[in-house]
Here is the input.
Amino acid sequence: MSDETPLAGDLLVRIGAIMFLVGAAATLATVAPLFLGTDPLPSVFYAVCMLMGAGFLVAAAGVIRSAVAQRRQVAAASPPSTTSAT
Here is the structure.
């Protein structure tokens, strides 16, 4: 475990990665019968394959949320610029 504090989108990235891996495993399981010459799997496996794309989107949303939170932290830490237009 690291001592870093979790950022805003870290949980979304982790959940998205798990969803992606489950979807990838289901995709491999549904494609395997094509190469092995066995009966195809039930249609439930094809629905689970959709987790791969959904997991990618959830992880991408987590990355974007984390980037926005970091940008806000930097903006809050930097002093406002006082430029005068004369």
